[in-house]
Amino acid sequence: MPIRVALAGVGNCASSLVQGVEFYGECGDAPGLIHADFGGYGIGDIEFVAAFDVDARKVGRDLSEAVFEEPNCTTRFSDVPETGVEVRLAPVMDGVGRSLSTEVRVGGDEPVDVSRVLQESGAEVLVNFLPVGSSEATAFYAGASLEAGAAFVNCIPEFIASEPAWASRFEDAGLPVLGDDVKSQFGATMLHRAVVQTMRDRGVRVENTYQLNVGGNTDFKNMLDEERNRTKRVSKTEAITSLLDDEIGVRIGPSDYVEFLDDNKQAFMQVEGRKFGETPVSVDMKLSVEDSPNSAGVVAEAIRAAKLGLDRGISGPIESVSAYLFKHPPARMDDDDARKLVESFIKGDL
Ligand SMILES: NC(=O)c1ccc[n+]([C@@H]2O[C@H](COP(=O)([O-])OP(=O)(O)OC[C@H]3O[C@@H](n4cnc5c(N)ncnc54)[C@H](O)[C@@H]3O)[C@@H](O)[C@H]2O)c1
Predict the structure, then answer these.
(1) What is the CATH code for 3-183+293-347?
(2) Fewer CB in 10 Å around end: N or C, the chain?
(3) pLDDT by residue (tens digit) across 201-225?
(4) What is the DSSP letter of 43?
(5) The pTM is what?
(6) Contact residues of ligand 1, CB 6 A cut-off
(7) Which CATH class is domain 188-290?
Protein backbone atom coordinates (compact mmCIF):
# COMPACT_ATOMS: atom_id res chain seq x y z
CA MET A 1 0.00 0.00 0.00
CA PRO A 2 1.46 3.43 -0.92
CA ILE A 3 2.43 5.99 1.73
CA ARG A 4 1.60 9.44 0.39
CA VAL A 5 4.42 11.79 1.41
CA ALA A 6 4.94 15.56 1.07
CA LEU A 7 8.33 17.29 1.43
CA ALA A 8 8.97 20.73 2.96
CA GLY A 9 12.38 21.64 1.49
CA VAL A 10 13.93 19.92 -1.53
CA GLY A 11 17.58 20.11 -0.45
CA ASN A 12 20.25 17.44 -0.11
CA CYS A 13 18.42 15.25 2.43
CA ALA A 14 15.28 15.26 0.27
CA SER A 15 17.44 14.38 -2.74
CA SER A 16 18.92 11.34 -0.98
CA LEU A 17 15.46 10.24 0.19
CA VAL A 18 13.89 10.55 -3.26
CA GLN A 19 16.83 8.69 -4.82
CA GLY A 20 16.65 6.04 -2.08
CA VAL A 21 12.99 5.30 -2.76
CA GLU A 22 13.90 4.68 -6.39
CA PHE A 23 17.02 2.68 -5.52
CA TYR A 24 15.37 0.37 -2.98
CA GLY A 25 12.08 0.26 -4.88
CA GLU A 26 14.11 -1.58 -7.51
CA CYS A 27 16.32 -3.73 -5.27
CA GLY A 28 13.99 -4.46 -2.33
CA ASP A 29 16.30 -5.30 0.55
CA ALA A 30 19.77 -4.38 -0.76
CA PRO A 31 22.35 -3.52 1.94
CA GLY A 32 22.18 -0.16 3.70
CA LEU A 33 18.73 -0.34 5.24
CA ILE A 34 17.86 -0.45 8.95
CA HIS A 35 14.61 -2.28 8.08
CA ALA A 36 13.77 -3.54 4.60
CA ASP A 37 10.31 -4.36 5.95
CA PHE A 38 8.91 -1.95 8.56
CA GLY A 39 5.59 -3.38 9.74
CA GLY A 40 4.66 -4.50 6.25
CA TYR A 41 5.93 -1.37 4.48
CA GLY A 42 8.98 -1.29 2.22
CA ILE A 43 10.77 1.89 1.15
CA GLY A 44 9.31 1.40 -2.32
CA ASP A 45 5.87 2.03 -0.80
CA ILE A 46 6.79 5.69 -0.28
CA GLU A 47 5.10 7.81 -2.94
CA PHE A 48 5.81 11.53 -3.17
CA VAL A 49 2.65 13.55 -3.75
CA ALA A 50 3.73 17.14 -2.98
CA ALA A 51 6.92 19.16 -2.49
CA PHE A 52 7.60 22.74 -1.41
CA ASP A 53 10.68 24.95 -1.77
CA VAL A 54 11.57 28.62 -2.28
CA ASP A 55 14.55 28.39 -4.67
CA ALA A 56 13.70 29.53 -8.20
CA ARG A 57 15.89 26.73 -9.63
CA LYS A 58 13.68 24.09 -7.97
CA VAL A 59 10.21 25.67 -7.96
CA GLY A 60 8.09 24.70 -10.99
CA ARG A 61 10.32 21.70 -11.77
CA ASP A 62 9.37 18.06 -11.50
CA LEU A 63 10.64 16.66 -8.17
CA SER A 64 12.86 14.21 -10.12
CA GLU A 65 14.80 17.18 -11.60
CA ALA A 66 14.64 19.54 -8.62
CA VAL A 67 16.49 17.08 -6.37
CA PHE A 68 19.58 17.39 -8.60
CA GLU A 69 19.49 21.20 -8.91
CA GLU A 70 22.13 23.42 -7.35
CA PRO A 71 22.96 24.20 -4.64
CA ASN A 72 22.24 20.50 -3.86
CA CYS A 73 25.56 18.68 -3.98
CA THR A 74 24.95 15.21 -2.56
CA THR A 75 26.01 12.05 -4.38
CA ARG A 76 23.82 10.86 -7.21
CA PHE A 77 23.39 7.14 -6.47
CA SER A 78 20.16 6.62 -8.42
CA ASP A 79 18.40 8.17 -11.38
CA VAL A 80 14.86 9.28 -10.65
CA PRO A 81 12.17 9.00 -13.33
CA GLU A 82 9.61 11.80 -13.71
CA THR A 83 7.33 11.85 -10.67
CA GLY A 84 4.54 14.12 -11.93
CA VAL A 85 5.01 16.15 -8.72
CA GLU A 86 5.79 19.81 -9.33
CA VAL A 87 7.79 21.60 -6.63
CA ARG A 88 5.55 24.43 -5.40
CA LEU A 89 6.60 27.82 -4.07
CA ALA A 90 6.08 28.14 -0.31
CA PRO A 91 6.30 31.26 1.85
CA VAL A 92 9.97 31.80 2.71
CA MET A 93 9.47 33.17 6.25
CA ASP A 94 12.73 32.60 8.20
CA GLY A 95 13.75 29.65 5.97
CA VAL A 96 16.71 31.42 4.36
CA GLY A 97 19.17 32.98 6.77
CA ARG A 98 22.08 35.39 6.25
CA SER A 99 24.64 32.72 5.36
CA LEU A 100 22.39 31.19 2.69
CA SER A 101 21.26 34.48 1.10
CA THR A 102 23.72 34.02 -1.78
CA GLU A 103 23.22 30.21 -2.05
CA VAL A 104 19.42 30.04 -2.20
CA ARG A 105 17.86 32.13 -4.99
CA VAL A 106 14.45 32.92 -3.57
CA GLY A 107 12.08 33.51 -6.46
CA GLY A 108 8.82 32.72 -8.20
CA ASP A 109 5.32 34.18 -8.22
CA GLU A 110 2.85 33.96 -5.36
CA PRO A 111 3.42 31.25 -2.77
CA VAL A 112 0.79 28.52 -2.75
CA ASP A 113 -1.63 27.76 0.08
CA VAL A 114 0.43 24.94 1.62
CA SER A 115 -2.33 23.37 3.66
CA ARG A 116 -4.65 23.34 0.63
CA VAL A 117 -1.99 21.69 -1.57
CA LEU A 118 -1.43 19.10 1.16
CA GLN A 119 -5.15 18.34 1.32
CA GLU A 120 -5.59 18.19 -2.45
CA SER A 121 -2.59 15.89 -2.83
CA GLY A 122 -3.94 13.52 -0.18
CA ALA A 123 -0.61 13.70 1.70
CA GLU A 124 -0.58 11.42 4.74
CA VAL A 125 2.88 12.38 6.05
CA LEU A 126 4.67 15.75 5.82
CA VAL A 127 8.46 15.67 6.22
CA ASN A 128 10.18 18.85 7.43
CA PHE A 129 13.59 19.26 5.74
CA LEU A 130 14.05 23.04 6.22
CA PRO A 131 17.37 24.68 7.09
CA VAL A 132 18.39 24.84 10.76
CA GLY A 133 17.00 27.94 12.47
CA SER A 134 13.69 27.93 10.52
CA SER A 135 11.63 28.40 13.62
CA GLU A 136 8.70 30.35 12.19
CA ALA A 137 8.60 28.26 9.00
CA THR A 138 8.65 24.98 10.95
CA ALA A 139 5.73 26.16 13.09
CA PHE A 140 3.96 27.10 9.85
CA TYR A 141 4.45 23.61 8.31
CA ALA A 142 3.50 21.86 11.57
CA GLY A 143 0.29 23.94 11.59
CA ALA A 144 -0.38 23.14 7.91
CA SER A 145 0.12 19.45 8.67
CA LEU A 146 -2.48 19.63 11.45
CA GLU A 147 -4.92 21.50 9.19
CA ALA A 148 -4.50 19.00 6.39
CA GLY A 149 -4.73 15.92 8.64
CA ALA A 150 -1.20 14.69 7.89
CA ALA A 151 1.30 13.12 10.29
CA PHE A 152 4.47 15.20 10.78
CA VAL A 153 8.09 14.01 10.69
CA ASN A 154 10.36 16.77 11.98
CA CYS A 155 13.93 16.20 10.82
CA ILE A 156 15.34 19.49 12.09
CA PRO A 157 16.30 20.88 15.51
CA GLU A 158 13.20 23.00 16.02
CA PHE A 159 11.24 21.45 18.85
CA ILE A 160 7.83 20.08 17.84
CA ALA A 161 7.50 16.41 18.87
CA SER A 162 9.53 17.18 22.03
CA GLU A 163 7.59 20.36 22.83
CA PRO A 164 4.56 19.47 24.99
CA ALA A 165 2.32 22.22 23.55
CA TRP A 166 2.86 20.98 19.97
CA ALA A 167 2.70 17.34 21.05
CA SER A 168 -0.76 17.86 22.54
CA ARG A 169 -1.99 19.64 19.41
CA PHE A 170 -1.08 16.52 17.39
CA GLU A 171 -2.63 14.33 20.06
CA ASP A 172 -5.88 16.34 19.96
CA ALA A 173 -5.92 16.12 16.16
CA GLY A 174 -5.48 12.32 16.29
CA LEU A 175 -2.23 12.51 14.30
CA PRO A 176 1.21 10.98 14.93
CA VAL A 177 4.28 13.22 15.18
CA LEU A 178 7.94 12.10 15.14
CA GLY A 179 11.08 14.10 15.94
CA ASP A 180 13.06 16.12 16.58
CA ASP A 181 16.33 16.41 14.59
CA VAL A 182 17.30 13.21 12.81
CA LYS A 183 19.94 11.01 14.44
CA SER A 184 21.76 9.85 11.31
CA GLN A 185 22.07 6.17 10.45
CA PHE A 186 25.76 6.04 11.43
CA GLY A 187 26.86 9.56 12.23
CA ALA A 188 28.80 11.49 14.83
CA THR A 189 26.01 11.31 17.42
CA MET A 190 25.69 7.50 17.19
CA LEU A 191 29.46 6.92 17.34
CA HIS A 192 29.97 9.44 20.14
CA ARG A 193 27.06 7.96 22.14
CA ALA A 194 28.38 4.43 21.70
CA VAL A 195 31.82 5.35 23.07
CA VAL A 196 30.48 7.44 25.98
CA GLN A 197 27.94 4.75 26.88
CA THR A 198 30.59 2.00 26.84
CA MET A 199 32.92 4.07 29.01
CA ARG A 200 30.08 4.77 31.44
CA ASP A 201 29.03 1.11 31.55
CA ARG A 202 32.68 0.11 32.29
CA GLY A 203 32.90 2.47 35.26
CA VAL A 204 34.89 5.22 33.57
CA ARG A 205 34.03 8.73 34.81
CA VAL A 206 33.75 10.84 31.66
CA GLU A 207 35.15 14.29 32.44
CA ASN A 208 35.10 16.18 29.19
CA THR A 209 34.38 15.73 25.52
CA TYR A 210 34.16 17.57 22.26
CA GLN A 211 32.65 16.85 18.84
CA LEU A 212 33.63 19.28 16.09
CA ASN A 213 31.84 18.85 12.76
CA VAL A 214 32.74 20.30 9.37
CA GLY A 215 31.19 19.93 5.92
CA GLY A 216 30.70 21.70 2.60
CA ASN A 217 26.94 21.56 1.97
CA THR A 218 24.37 24.32 2.50
CA ASP A 219 23.43 22.82 5.88
CA PHE A 220 26.96 23.57 7.12
CA LYS A 221 27.08 26.98 5.43
CA ASN A 222 23.78 27.92 7.09
CA MET A 223 25.11 26.87 10.47
CA LEU A 224 27.99 29.37 10.27
CA ASP A 225 25.36 31.67 11.71
CA GLU A 226 25.69 30.85 15.41
CA GLU A 227 22.29 32.39 16.19
CA ARG A 228 20.50 29.92 13.82
CA ASN A 229 22.66 27.16 15.17
CA ARG A 230 21.51 27.49 18.79
CA THR A 231 18.95 24.66 18.77
CA LYS A 232 21.29 22.37 16.79
CA ARG A 233 23.93 22.79 19.50
CA VAL A 234 21.36 22.04 22.22
CA SER A 235 20.06 18.98 20.37
CA LYS A 236 23.51 17.51 19.61
CA THR A 237 24.90 18.29 23.08
CA GLU A 238 21.95 16.81 24.97
CA ALA A 239 22.19 13.65 22.85
CA ILE A 240 25.53 13.02 24.61
CA THR A 241 25.20 14.66 28.03
CA SER A 242 21.85 12.91 28.66
CA LEU A 243 23.86 9.65 28.97
CA LEU A 244 25.77 11.01 31.97
CA ASP A 245 24.77 12.01 35.49
CA ASP A 246 27.66 14.38 36.22
CA GLU A 247 28.36 17.80 34.77
CA ILE A 248 31.21 17.56 32.26
CA GLY A 249 33.26 19.90 30.14
CA VAL A 250 31.59 19.77 26.74
CA ARG A 251 31.65 21.45 23.32
CA ILE A 252 29.55 19.85 20.57
CA GLY A 253 28.21 21.22 17.32
CA PRO A 254 28.77 22.24 13.70
CA SER A 255 32.14 23.96 13.67
CA ASP A 256 32.98 25.21 10.18
CA TYR A 257 32.10 25.22 6.49
CA VAL A 258 34.72 23.74 4.14
CA GLU A 259 33.32 24.26 0.65
CA PHE A 260 35.34 21.60 -1.20
CA LEU A 261 34.01 18.85 1.08
CA ASP A 262 30.55 19.21 -0.54
CA ASP A 263 28.25 16.66 1.13
CA ASN A 264 31.10 14.87 2.90
CA LYS A 265 30.87 15.51 6.64
CA GLN A 266 33.86 15.06 8.91
CA ALA A 267 33.52 14.83 12.66
CA PHE A 268 36.42 15.03 15.12
CA MET A 269 35.65 13.69 18.57
CA GLN A 270 37.55 13.33 21.80
CA VAL A 271 36.37 11.81 25.08
CA GLU A 272 38.49 12.00 28.22
CA GLY A 273 37.81 10.25 31.49
CA ARG A 274 39.22 8.58 34.59
CA LYS A 275 39.16 4.86 35.29
CA PHE A 276 40.51 2.60 38.11
CA GLY A 277 42.75 4.55 40.48
CA GLU A 278 41.57 7.79 38.85
CA THR A 279 44.11 7.18 36.09
CA PRO A 280 43.36 8.89 32.75
CA VAL A 281 41.97 7.45 29.52
CA SER A 282 41.35 9.35 26.30
CA VAL A 283 39.75 8.40 22.96
CA ASP A 284 40.21 10.33 19.70
CA MET A 285 38.00 9.62 16.69
CA LYS A 286 37.48 10.92 13.18
CA LEU A 287 34.38 10.03 11.18
CA SER A 288 34.04 10.79 7.47
CA VAL A 289 30.61 10.21 5.96
CA GLU A 290 28.38 11.27 3.06
CA ASP A 291 25.98 13.40 5.08
CA SER A 292 22.59 13.42 3.37
CA PRO A 293 22.02 9.69 2.65
CA ASN A 294 22.94 9.23 6.31
CA SER A 295 19.79 11.11 7.32
CA ALA A 296 17.60 9.82 4.48
CA GLY A 297 18.03 6.20 5.62
CA VAL A 298 16.57 7.19 8.98
CA VAL A 299 13.79 9.35 7.56
CA ALA A 300 12.70 6.37 5.44
CA GLU A 301 12.14 4.55 8.76
CA ALA A 302 10.32 7.49 10.36
CA ILE A 303 7.92 7.87 7.43
CA ARG A 304 6.93 4.21 7.66
CA ALA A 305 6.53 4.52 11.46
CA ALA A 306 4.25 7.53 10.93
CA LYS A 307 2.15 5.54 8.46
CA LEU A 308 1.90 2.61 10.90
CA GLY A 309 0.85 5.17 13.53
CA LEU A 310 -1.90 6.42 11.23
CA ASP A 311 -3.03 2.86 10.45
CA ARG A 312 -3.25 2.10 14.16
CA GLY A 313 -4.92 5.36 15.19
CA ILE A 314 -1.95 6.53 17.31
CA SER A 315 -2.06 10.23 18.15
CA GLY A 316 0.74 12.48 19.40
CA PRO A 317 4.47 11.63 19.63
CA ILE A 318 5.54 8.05 18.88
CA GLU A 319 8.06 7.99 21.73
CA SER A 320 9.95 4.73 21.11
CA VAL A 321 10.61 5.42 17.44
CA SER A 322 11.47 9.06 18.12
CA ALA A 323 14.01 8.03 20.79
CA TYR A 324 15.65 5.62 18.35
CA LEU A 325 15.71 7.86 15.28
CA PHE A 326 15.99 11.43 16.58
CA LYS A 327 18.51 13.40 18.64
CA HIS A 328 15.98 15.43 20.65
CA PRO A 329 13.03 13.09 21.26
CA PRO A 330 10.10 13.64 23.62
CA ALA A 331 11.38 10.79 25.86
CA ARG A 332 15.06 9.87 26.07
CA MET A 333 16.17 6.22 26.19
CA ASP A 334 19.34 4.18 25.82
CA ASP A 335 19.76 3.23 22.15
CA ASP A 336 19.49 -0.48 23.00
CA ASP A 337 16.23 -0.02 24.92
CA ALA A 338 14.83 2.18 22.16
CA ARG A 339 15.78 -0.39 19.51
CA LYS A 340 13.94 -3.16 21.39
CA LEU A 341 10.86 -0.94 21.76
CA VAL A 342 10.96 -0.12 18.04
CA GLU A 343 10.95 -3.85 17.24
CA SER A 344 7.91 -4.26 19.53
CA PHE A 345 6.24 -1.26 17.87
CA ILE A 346 6.79 -2.80 14.43
CA LYS A 347 5.25 -6.09 15.58
CA GLY A 348 2.26 -4.17 16.99
CA ASP A 349 3.02 -5.14 20.62
CA LEU A 350 3.08 -1.48 21.77
N1 LIG B 1 22.33 15.49 6.83
C2 LIG B 1 22.01 14.97 7.98
O3 LIG B 1 22.49 13.90 8.31
C4 LIG B 1 21.05 15.67 8.90
C5 LIG B 1 20.90 15.15 10.19
C6 LIG B 1 20.02 15.78 11.06
C7 LIG B 1 19.29 16.89 10.65
N8 LIG B 1 19.45 17.38 9.40
C9 LIG B 1 18.68 18.58 9.07
O10 LIG B 1 17.81 18.38 7.97
C11 LIG B 1 17.54 19.66 7.36
C12 LIG B 1 17.69 19.55 5.86
O13 LIG B 1 19.06 19.35 5.54
P14 LIG B 1 19.57 19.49 4.04
O15 LIG B 1 20.99 19.07 4.05
O16 LIG B 1 18.62 18.86 3.10
O17 LIG B 1 19.50 21.11 3.87
P18 LIG B 1 19.51 21.92 2.49
O19 LIG B 1 20.06 23.27 2.81
O20 LIG B 1 20.18 21.12 1.44
O21 LIG B 1 17.95 22.02 2.10
C22 LIG B 1 17.03 22.90 2.66
C23 LIG B 1 16.01 23.26 1.58
O24 LIG B 1 14.96 24.03 2.18
C25 LIG B 1 14.58 25.04 1.25
N26 LIG B 1 13.82 26.07 1.97
C27 LIG B 1 14.22 27.15 2.67
N28 LIG B 1 13.15 27.81 3.20
C29 LIG B 1 12.05 27.12 2.81
C30 LIG B 1 10.66 27.30 3.04
N31 LIG B 1 10.18 28.32 3.78
N32 LIG B 1 9.79 26.39 2.51
C33 LIG B 1 10.26 25.35 1.75
N34 LIG B 1 11.57 25.15 1.50
C35 LIG B 1 12.46 26.02 2.02
C36 LIG B 1 15.91 25.48 0.64
O37 LIG B 1 15.73 26.19 -0.56
C38 LIG B 1 16.58 24.12 0.46
O39 LIG B 1 16.23 23.55 -0.79
C40 LIG B 1 18.54 20.64 7.99
O41 LIG B 1 17.89 21.38 9.00
C42 LIG B 1 19.57 19.72 8.61
O43 LIG B 1 20.27 20.29 9.70
C44 LIG B 1 20.31 16.79 8.51
Answers:
(1) 3.40.50.720
(2) N
(3) 999 999 999 999 999 999 999 999 9
(4) G
(5) 0.97
(6) 8-14, 52-55, 72, 90, 92-93, 95-96, 104, 129-132, 137, 155-156, 181-182, 184, 187, 217-219, 291-292, 294-295
(7) alpha beta
